[in-house]
Design a protein that fits this description.
homodimer; DNA-binding; 4 helices; alpha+beta; 3 strands
DNA sequence: GAATATAGTTTATGTTACAAACAAGTCTAT
DNA sequence: ATAGACTTGTTTGTAACATAAACTATATTC
């Protein structure tokens, strides 16, 4: 039971929340993530960009009811990374022998 | 299933590993933690200090075989914090509905 | 057409994580 | 007894990070 390194990209509260949401939902726009995470828009914007640059999510910028709309979806790579993170961190949470 | 804030002190790979180890062992010295975590001494020293200042662990500096020996043990407060962290992060790891 | 609202980005700043350099003492061999 | 290597930690310097405030751009309302 070693301490597997934790993906630094996912080991962040907001980014982990984003990915966790997108894994369940498979499609979520900026406001959805904003509301669900309780983040600020600035922080959300930054972290979405980072996840996108890492290839963990895809970002589709379009319009909805005349307003800009940023739709995010998790990628296969993102799912894999999330699953690996979940498996890894469990090694840290074991209290029992 | 909201996203409970994660204790920033525990949401760090090395500190989480330290606390996780001490929860199981109830007594671990510097070298024990060094070996188990695979950390560097510098980083370990810093994080032990932070955990101590937060009251999550107690640090007992003595000597063992003539050499300095830093014995660490988890406090009640540390156990509580760890348990809260474990409960909190599980809210981020749930993939299923 | 001015004011306000929406949707998001850029920037500025303080904080953090980390390892290299340092410090203080101990052992060994000569 | 002292030089050199080892042990056990601490301090410090730097780069990366997290975050919110300030900003941009367009849309709606009055």
């Amino acid at each position: 039971m070693a301490f597997t390194p934790l993906d630094p990209l996912l080991h962040n509260q907001l980014r982990l929340a984003i990915v966790s949401l997108l894994v369940s939902v498979e499609e979520g726009d900026f406001n959805f993530l904003l509301e669900k995470t309780g983040s600020t828009r600035g922080n959300l914007s930054v972290q979405i960009t980072k996840l996108k640059e890492a290839g963990y999510i895809s970002v589709n910028k379009g319009y909805k009811d005349n307003y800009p709309n940023t739709a995010c979806a998790i990628t296969y790579q993102g799912i894999r990374a999330f699953e690996a993170y979940v498996a890894a961190i469990k090694g840290y949470l074991n209290t029992g022998a």
